[in-house]
Amino acid sequence: MAEALCLRLDKRHGESALRLLRELQLLDTGFGIGHDGDQLLIALNRSPSEPERAALETKFGDLRIGTRTLSRVLHEPRTIIEALKDQLAPHQLASLPRSVDIIGEIAIVELPEELRKHEALVGKAILETNRNLRTVLAKAGPISTEKRVRHFRVIAGSDNTETTHVEYGCLFRVDVTKVYFSPRLSFEHERVAKQARENETVVDMFTGVGPFAIHIAKGRRQIRVYAIDMSDDAVKYLQENILLNHVDDKVIAIKGDARTVIEEHLARKCDRVIMNLPTRAAEYVDAACLAIKPTGGVIHYYTFCKDPDPVDRTKEMLSEMLLKANRRLDKMLYSRTVKATAPHEWLRALDVLVR
Q1: Whose CB among 44, 141, 214, 217 lies 3.0–4.6 Å from 151's, allowing a Cys bridge?
Q2: Domain 180-354: homologous superfamily in CATH
Q3: Domain 80-160 sits in which CATH superfamily?
Q4: From the first residue on, what is the mean pLDDT of each consecutive set of 10 residues in the chain (355 residues)?
Q5: Cα–Cα distance, 228 to 165 (Å, whole number)
């Protein structure tokens, strides 16, 4: 509670008074609206000028302005910069992350070394400005090549790193410390899923917790998707997500090496192959070619490229690998630079029709 300069008027004028006070920039939003019988008490941030007073009197008659005690309104910060503006130096505020990866109820940030000793403050600010979150993690190392998982530090909130992420109506149960999942690939998951056709046979060679496979299955009535991964944890969550999304009649979870699974069970049976393992996809192009039906099919190929490596160079390299596997690149269907992964390094997606 605090003393405030107030405009007193009949409550039937409340909405129009607030609207006019905002237009005149007279409204003090640091206070709530007071009540005194049928009268409203609206806080002003200063005394009205003569023209402003005339505008108010024209609308509401003689003005009654005086000092009254009103309740203060506490405004929650809208951004982490706003939340930390009085706690960090200007150069530190400039170093705060401009984007945060949100996976379910978990936020993941990458902090520069100069903010390391202030990471608890940053984490608290992220929770304050995102009430639907419960945990903030800071990246503590690169993604490992094999399991594609990263080390994290909990800098705010709960130590529980398991959550459920919602993406285009699909549910994904994940533990971000045990399995790979990137919310930045949501567009890719949906884009590829929209290309799948009824009655296709699809193999997702490096499925993780199943985002490509489950998106595809949810959008089709008759389709068969083989989802393969070598990680015990990934397959555990994959199986859980298959049931969670009610696609157990369309998605088959397989633990193992994609090459071995294709050679033993899926050779020349597939219409579509997804290869989302950018660090090693090139090593498996021959296996993808073996999976494709003799009449041809589509390969969704993901790889890293260096700036300013052109798309044509990536296409040429893939074409050469296909020829070595006795296939040919019949048509480039789509290419896209998906996201930056490091300074001067990008994730690139290529969809190619293979004969």
Answers
A1: 141
A2: Vaccinia Virus protein VP39 (3.40.50.150)
A3: Met-10+ protein-like domains (3.30.300.110)
A4: 88 87 86 89 91 87 88 80 90 92 97 95 95 95 77 97 97 97 96 98 98 97 98 97 98 98 98 97 98 98 86 94 97 92 89 98
A5: 21
